[in-house]
Amino acid sequence: MKTFRKIDIYVSMFLLAVLIAALYGAVHNQISYSFSSEYFTHFKFVQFGLLWAQDTQRLGAAYVGVLATWWMGIILFSILGLFGFMFPSPKQMALELSRSLIIVVTIALITGILGLLYGFLVVNETSISNYSKWLWPDVTHPIQFIRVGFMHNASYLGGLMGLIGGVFYLIMRKRSISAKQ
Questions:
Q1: Which domain holds residue 38?
Q2: What is the pTM of this model?
Q3: Gap between the terminal Cα atoms of the chain
């Protein structure tokens, strides 16, 4: 019976992870839109074929975020969630997986912000020509466009780093619990 309850928890938390990933993308894109609306109007809306988004750009940016990240929830939790089965009870499994999801999101967010900060450090009037191949036509604020590109790329790296951090946390918690028994 405990195994079936753990499977229920895995499935429920899997769906929660997809929702969290989608919400993360929407919020992330609101932050990045604040730094470069052109990253969306000249690149992401075109990439995702969202002509309507030009009229409601903030909503479009959030929607792009959902489309760009929900699947990361599938990938990350497919792996992370399996580590939850090593905990003795369904309650402990749910608790530790919840904490590990917080770790994943926190690391992804911090990494994205660090990517933006890195962009601010390296992309300026002098260095912008080094990134000309990353620019889309008619961008009027290329420095901000490239900086936001750094943020977006860093966030995907942050998802992977978050997964590693979440798995590490789960393994350490399992060891801690086992040592107490």
A1: 2-180
A2: 0.92
A3: 22
Domain count, the chain: 1
- Give pLDDT tens digits for 124-178: 999 999 999 999 889 999 999 999 999 999 999 999 999 999 999 999 999 998 8
**How many of the other CB atoms lie within 10 Å of CB of 128?**
15
Task: Determine how many CB atoms are found less than 10 A away from the CB of residue 57.
Answer: 14
| Closest C-alpha among 151, 6, 167, 159 to residue 69 | 159
Compute the 3-state secondary structure of the chain and give helix, strand, coil in percent, each to the nearest 5. 85, 0, 15
Count Cβ atoms below 10 Å from residue 83 Cβ, excluding itself.
20
Element (H, E) at 19: helix 2-35
Residue 153: CB atoms within 10 A of its CB come to 16
CA dihedral 78, 83, 84, 89 (to 10 degrees): 150
Task: Dihedral sign for Cα 100, 104, 109, 111, please.
Answer: positive
CA distance to 58, 161, 164, per residue, from 107 (Å) = 25, 7, 10
